[in-house]
């Protein structure tokens, strides 16, 4: 029980530290340090965990990939490739509704500091053109810019889940996430975009111009999809495949001060977050007294639905109070690992519950007032937190309903 209480108290430091304007990376690192001191697993185990994060191949690849993503995102932003992508989209797509969905989704593919600020002005301007009120514009920017974090192979959370659950096929989880997002985004479209009247647009450009813009889009987005293709075709690790992304950016850019731009783009804050979360996960895996408490809870649950209630309560709570998606997963994935071992869970069931925990953590993080993307978006669009939450309304309950129904359906199938 001591370990359970100490873990709970440790995570309560996160909203407190954030209130004191301590940056998220330092906050998560301090949380990992406090948990190390309060875990009661011994100094030798703690030192082994800290060293092991940089030795374990999956953990190391996760850290390196997160670092490489920051380099790719930062250099694409600096050399104007993202601006070129947006410009090509605006030329190619006549429907402003479609543009409102596509632009934040594309920009969300890369972990760019302030990425919400980058997409928010486009959504704000186009939303004004089609008569959307500010809270609707904020909701659309937030909803569509978070698609990639659940379905893109080198998003930080997907990389963390792959590292924490080495026995699963991460592409199965991505497929489950994609199905969930298609259903939820269909509702989001019906809720926020369907009834918007499109302004009259100029006629399409000539076929030659359209081909030019499409080619421009294909070229300027190549640093994003090249590593995915290399990983899928040849099994090259993302951390290595993204070297090709940097090479493409080098060839497409004016190459001025490229070394300086790489140095400036290095996302050390993001790296510190993922290292800290990996440490938290490994510490929790060794907190046997706490995990035994959850063994009793899970055994008492007696049904999949009861297990889901326990898991979703933990995931949403910790995601909400931390404003971070990886933090609750650092707690729940070790629980799932222990549960699968003790209960003889099949690999198919393990995939389903991993999907459930991932979406649960996402929902807690997504609707948290500490969610940094939300903070940036509200600032750009001059919308209050209360106005945004009133706009979300039924969207929250639809998301929860879809998660429960889809999970029960998958469990019945597998």
In short:
The protein has 414 residues and is mainly alpha-helical. Helices cover 79% and strands 0% of the residues.
Describe the structure.
It is a single chain. This protein is mainly alpha-helical. It has one domain (57-79, 95-200, 221-272, 285-413). It has 23 helices and no strands. Helix 7 (115-129) crosses helix 8 and helix 13 (222-234) packs antiparallel against helix 14. It starts with a helix and ends with a helix. The relative contact order is 0.15.
Low-confidence stretches: none
Quote the beta fraction. Answer: under 5%
Q: Radius of gyration, Cα only, in angstroms?
A: 22 Å
The string of secondary-structure elements, in order, is HHHHHHHHHHHHHHHHHHHHHHH
Number of helices: 23
Give a count of the beta strands, DSSP E runs of length 2 or more. Answer: 0
Task: Quote the distance from N terminus to C terminus.
Answer: 35 Å
What helical percentage do the residues reach? over 70%
Estimate the global geometry from the Cα principal axes. Answer: globular
How many individual domains? Answer: 1
Mean pLDDT: 85
Major β-sheet, in short? none
Question: How does the helix and strand content classify structurally?
Answer: mainly alpha
